[in-house]
Amino acid sequence: MNLREAVLEAIESLSSNKLRSGLTVLGIVIGVGAVIAMLGIGRGAQATITGSISDIGTNLLFVFEGGAEDVRNPKSLTLGDAQAIGDAFQAPSVVGVAPLLRGSVEVTYGGESSFTQGMGVTTDYQFVRNVVMAEGEFLSEEHMLGRAAVAVIAPDTAERLFGRTVGLVGETIRIEGQPFRILGVTVARGGSGFNNEDDRVLVPLTTAQSRLMRRGRDEVDMIMARASSADSVLQAQAEIAALLRARHRTAVGADDFTIFTQQDFLATAETITNVLTIFLGGIAAISLLVGGIGIMNIMLVSVTERTREIGLRKAIGARKRDILIQFLTESSLLSLIGGVIGVIFGYSLAMLVGAIARASDADLSPAVSLDAILMATLFSAAVGLFFGLYPAKRAADLEPVEALRYE
């Protein structure tokens, strides 16, 4: 029996039980579709997260409190540390420094109230973070010196409070119950979650210290530094580390601070999203295995129903190999058809999720790659062969005489 004959006989056999074959194919369709959709959504989420981190800038460094666990008398980050880092003689690879305070604050206007991230920043924050104003102006040195009750708000915060993002300069909002005049609104940068740059309120650092986020004398929560270029980030990191060790009097390996670069954040995000994607794909693959068990079940039923047919074929000269090929072809054909339909179904499902995300203003674009399609299709074919092997062998091992006697 050649392959063409085997395929034609398989199609004829499957066509004689359309409903049963269709339900069997459905299991493979759901399995392959789930794998394709989950991998596509996972990769889309990975691209969104890493893209958002990359948009922050490739030459930024973030200095946080806390380092080695066995450090004695760890010191907090201070404005003095920030000024030292900004000294061109002590850290020549650093071109901008922005110390800041941050915390959750309640912002109200009229009858609207919202919790958002409040940040006390200096005027240098605009340069370090490359903040662009949609309207109005950024914080100035006069606002810093006078501890002015002024604020710059992000567009998502403005939308929630006012229902618009334009014409807000001069309006008064309340932050933690205290009145603040709006200086300007920043340009939307995109983002989501706990670090959404479009959902925050910026006030002068001096004002935050005295009225909103009280800390110890000159203490800050974080120091952001901007290296002169992406190539000088590592040099800037070494300079900042050496400088802080000298100021905090800590030894190498016993730092009471932590410095993150953009590459650190990207590597961490990629690791997390890769694990998430594999996890989602693994869960989806379970449904594909269930579909394979369905194929085995149907093929075993088919062997039982066609026992006399098998006996007759063997009696007129069919070899064991011919019977084996016949049933393996049927199971593989079921799996292949299900795989092709499943790829279409999975791609459509991923695109539907992307459309829903866009309609909800969520930055998620599922990415269905060719390797995911090939992997799911080949895996479905392997499932068909694997789960069809036992029924096919069972059919091939039937004795002609016993098979002809079967009723």
Mean pLDDT: 79
Low-confidence stretches: none
- Oligomeric state as shown: single chain
Strand tally is 10
How many domains make up the 3D coordinates?
Answer: 2
Q: What would you report as the Rg, rounded to the nearest angstrom? A: 32 Å
Amino-to-carboxy terminus distance? 27 Å
Query: What is the general shape?
Result: elongated
SSE sequence, one letter per element:
HHEHEEHEHEHEEEHEHEHHHHH
Q: State the helix count.
A: 13
Summarize the amount of helix as a percent range: 55-70%
Strand line-up across the major sheet: 2-3-8-5-7-6
The structure class reads alpha+beta
Strand residues, percent? 15-25%
Biggest beta sheet summary: 6 strands, mixed, barrel
Describe the model.
The protein has 407 residues and is of the alpha+beta class. The protein has two domains: 3-53 and 267-405, no CATH class; 67-255, no CATH class. Helix content is 56%, strand content 17%. It contains 13 helices and ten strands. A six-stranded mixed barrel has the order 2-3-8-5-7-6. Strand 2 and strand 3 (112-121) form a beta hairpin. The chain is elongated and about 105 Å long.
Summarize the structure.
With 407 residues, the protein is of the alpha+beta class. The protein is built from 13 helices and ten strands.
